[in-house]
Each structure stands twice: as C-alpha cells, then as structure tokens.
Design brief:
Order of helices and strands: HEEEEHEEEHHHHH
Number of strands: 7
Number of helices: 7
Shape: globular
Distance between the termini: 80 Å
Strand content: 25-35%
Strand order of the largest sheet: 3-2-1-7-6-5-4
Mean pLDDT: 82
Largest sheet: 7 strands, antiparallel
Low-confidence stretches: 1-33
Length: 191
C-alpha cells in the first residue's frame, strides 16, 4: 500500500521542520552548538583517605584493562593537587565530592562520596594531545590512547623523562617508558 504523494511530502516536510527548528534557534540566537567533549581514554574506581599529615591524601586508582585488573596507589598526594576538593567536604559526615588531578599526560576527573576523610567513587582519564606530540618530538614516538592513559595514571611526566636522561640512560623507547611507569618508578624513586 502506498501513501498519496501529498501525504508523503507533508510528512517529510514536517520532519525536516522538526529537525531544523532547534538548529535555526541556536544559529539565530548567535549561540554555537555545544562542542562534544572527547570520550575518556580509561575509567575506573578510586579510594581516597586522609593521612595523619595535614594536607596530604592517599589516593588509590584501580582500572581494568584487557580483562586484567591494574591498580595504582598514589601515596602522599598533596590535597592541593586534587583540584575542587575542599577540606569541609573531606571532613563532612557524608558529602558528594569531585576533583581533578592534572598531570603532564592528561587529567583524572573523579566523582564520588566521602565520609569523615574516607572516600570512594569513579574516575575518568582524559588525554592531553600536546603531551603525545611532545613525546614524539623528544624521540619516544607517539603513544596510543591506552599507553597514554597508563602514563596519566602512573604520572609519567616530563620530569621523569628528564631524570632518566640525566642519570645517563638516554631517551627510552616508548614501550619501555610505559612499563617503567606501570611498575611505579617515579622521579622521587630515582633520586
């Protein structure tokens, strides 16, 4: 059974108007359509705990990658590096929290809850394109998204690369650098 031609045209015209109306409203108002944020390169769960020293936190980041669990424990993170996290929220009876931990390779954005200094929740890893370009310029090569996410989580930053080079090891290959970071080697460890 076919519809009369005028019905088909009417339905198509109504559909086109319905789809075009929001676009005309946005463009006519001078506003631009929202730019979609890139998808996270990795996701996982975190735990957060106040340490006895003032202004210091223990942060544990756990991800699953290729059907195996990987965990990073970031000892002694200065609370000031957890952007958006307040002392009031940390010490509350129960509070929703969110914070961002910026690193050379990208950033970790976390949301969760905290009760009297103990917190937990979920996080997402977002990559910094300039970091990938810088690694390529330094002779390591350009990391893929999974490699760079590991460098974000393990804090494989420029300082670590500079320390490795200063100790006479030269510029590591990218896969070696990722493995070094995954095994917990930090600038503090090298010094």
């Amino acid at each position: 059974m076919t519809l009369p031609r005028f019905v088909t045209r009417f339905v198509l015209a109504c559909g086109a108007v319905a789809l075009a109306t929001p676009l005309v409203a946005v463009l006519g108002s001078g506003m631009r359509p929202a730019h979609a944020e890139p998808a996270p390169a990795a996701t996982g769960k975190f735990t957060l705990e106040s340490r006895p020293e003032p202004g210091v936190m223990s942060l544990s980041l756990n991800i699953t990658r290729k059907k195996s669990a990987h965990a990073w424990l970031v000892e002694r993170v200065p609370a000031g590096q957890l952007l958006g996290l307040t002392a009031d929220a940390l010490n509350a009876e129960g509070s929703a929290i969110q914070f961002t931990l910026k690193r050379d390779a990208g950033e970790i954005r976390a949301r969760g809850t905290v009760v009297k200094g103990l917190g937990q929740g979920a996080f997402e890893v977002f990559l910094d394109d300039a970091y990938a370009a810088q690694l390529q310029q330094r002779g390591l090569g350009k990391p893929n998204a999974e490699q760079q996410a590991m460098l974000v989580l393990g804090d494989g930053g420029y300082a670590l690369l500079d320390d490795i080079k200063a100790l006479g090891f030269g510029t590591p290959k990218l896969d070696v650098f990722v493995r070094v970071v995954e095994h917990g080697v930090t600038s503090a460890f090298l010094r």
